[in-house]
Amino acid sequence: MDIETFRNYCLSKKGVTEDLPFGPDNLVFKIMGKMIALASLDEVPLRVNLKCDPERALSLREEYPENILPGYHMNKMHWNTLVLDGLPKAIIFGLVDHSYKLVVLGLPKKIQQELKAL
Length: 118
Known about the structure:
single chain, alpha+beta, Aspartate Aminotransferase, domain 1, 6 strands, 40% helix, 25% strand
C-alpha cells in the first residue's frame, strides 16, 4: 500500500486531521487532537504506527511476525508498527478503524459529542 492510499483512508474518517509535528518525515493523523496513526514517510517499505488493544496487539504480532511489530518509539503495549508491504488492504484498513475507535472511546464524553456534531 502506498502513502496516498493510507492517507486518503485515514482522512476519510470523521474528524481526522493530519499534521507534521515531528518534522517532515512523520505524518500524524489525529481525531479531536489525539493521535490515531503515525506514518514514517522516509521508511521503505512504508511503516505506520496504529493504536491497538493490548491483547489484540499480541495476537496480531504472532499472526503477522514480519509485518506487525511492537510500536516503534511508542508504548509497545498499546501501539503496533505495521510494515505495509505484504499486508492485505483489509487488514490495514481494519486496524485503522480499530485505532480510530479506541481513541474515540477514550475521549471525554463532551468531546465525543462534539465529534458526533461534525
